Amino acid sequence: MEKISNKVFIKYANSHFNNKELDLFNIFQTNLEKLETLIERRITHTYGSEESVYLSIIHHIETYFNSTKMKFVDLYRGYISCINSQSYSSTLLISRTLLENISMLDYLSTKFIKLIRDKNYIKLIQELANLSVPSWRTELVENYKRTHINDALRHFSTTTAFKEKSENEIFKIMYDPISEMSHPSASSFLMYQSHNNLIKNEMTKFQTSFSQNNEKIHGKVFPVISWVLVYPYLLIEELYPKVQKDLIDAIKNSKLEIDIHFKNNLDDLIKYNEIIKNLVLK
Q1: Confidence band (pLDDT; 50, 70, 90) for 164?
Q2: Count: domains in the chain
Q3: For 203, which DSSP code?
Q4: Is the dihedral of CA 260, 265, 266, 268 positive or negative?
Q5: What is the pTM of this model?
Q6: Which domain holds residue 230?
Q7: Structural domain contains residue 2
Q8: What confidence tens digit (pLDDT) does each residue in 59-93 have?
Q9: Average pLDDT of every residue of the chain
Q10: How many degrees, rounded to 5, is the angle at CA 212 between CA 211 and CA 214?
């Protein structure tokens, strides 16, 4: 994967994180490379018909979280490329998407882990069904409901990099500024402009200079896009190990228990069949 080579941004980020002993960019690159190695190119499960519920759960869980790894790697390629080419508006858009995706990963994995621990299999299957259809085919899932990104952001703010701050800090420090500078609002246009109004002999001269790469842009954009450098560490050291140990391994260790539950609880088996009746297992 390409490395960040924008010297102005590297200098700012090292200063922003007070990086004296920690090799911030080397850790960033190393964790991205580790993330790439975690991606599986094919996931296959084969079980008998009496194990179909367990199969649905484990297959959907593993395919979903594997897809998140691919998406993060894809987004980071764009993030690095945009920083190096000094395309900062594009970097803002990608940074916002990365923040939304890591927040959702943290939020959903925590929710799924709780559902497994509570043995609430039907609720888990409903949640997985919501993740199994695109937005234009939601009619395939009865009682379809999409998780709101603000719920995920609030959860992320209290569990990871912002856990010592109030839950509103993630909006104040990162999400709101990124959104303002990404949307077609004044904030997203004014950062390219420098005004110099001159009055001489009762005449006013309006002069505006434009730049795609100046200190004004650096001062607004760098603080929010630099936080994205921390996410690969969180993914490799915290989130994906949690997913593997507390969710995937926990489900595999509960296979017999899941099979017995649906064998002895026919009402839950009926609910399961109703949820997945229109879905094609991929």
Answers
A1: low
A2: 1
A3: E
A4: negative
A5: 0.89
A6: 23-39+49-156+213-276
A7: no
A8: 999 999 999 999 999 999 999 999 999 999 999 99
A9: 89
A10: 70
